Amino acid sequence: MAFDLYNVGGIPVVIKELLDAGLLHGDVLTATGKTLADNHKEVKFPDNQDVVYRVRDCITPTGGVVGLRGNLAPDGAIVKVAGMHRLVFTGPARCYDSEEAAFDAVVKGKFKTGDVLVIRYEGPQGRPGQCARCCRPRRRSMVSASARRWR
């Protein structure tokens, strides 16, 4: 994907589109001593390509992540929703303060069909590191255990 983006003009194309859509502050100064808008005024959006979309033609209204606020996230939270089709949930939530605690609950069957599992205090602020990458085997077994329970 980075190669394809480079071939259609790279990050300047993305920045120019976001500027044109009013989603970036064009008046901020950059390391060049010019504003962001000045640095990108000559950038043209490439036609006949399917790598970068116009904001008006976006694939999804929110992109791959959304911000949440509510009783489970009073200070807000960011959630990855790429690939999800059902973005609204009403019902019981089982909250766990670590991925290990959630994993233990799944293995022991401490949830019901229709419950949502919430894992708090994970991610860049909650726990350093790349748990999303190093914990794949455990996540696979969580999904596998929950699927067996729902059959």
Shape: elongated
Number of strands: 4
* Alpha plus pi helix count: 6
State the separation between the terminal residues, measured CA to CA: 38 Å
Strand content: 5-15%
Order of helices and strands: HHHEEEHEHH
Q: Main beta sheet: strand number and arrangement?
A: 2 strands, antiparallel
- The proportion of residues forming helix, as a percent range, comes to 25-40%
Q: List the strand order in the largest sheet.
A: 1-2
Radius of gyration: 21 Å
Unreliably modeled segments: none
Q: What structural category arises from helix and sheet content?
A: alpha+beta
Round the mean pLDDT to the nearest integer and report it: 81
How would you explain this protein's 3D organization?
It is a single chain. This protein is of the alpha+beta class and 151 residues long. The chain contains 6 helices and 4 strands, in the order αααβββαβαα. The chain has helices at residues 2-7, 11-20, 36-39, 99-107, 131-134, 136-150; strands at residues 65-70, 73-80, 93-96, 116-119. A hairpin with a 2-residue loop joins strand 1 and strand 2 (73-80). The radius of gyration is 21 Å and the shape is elongated.
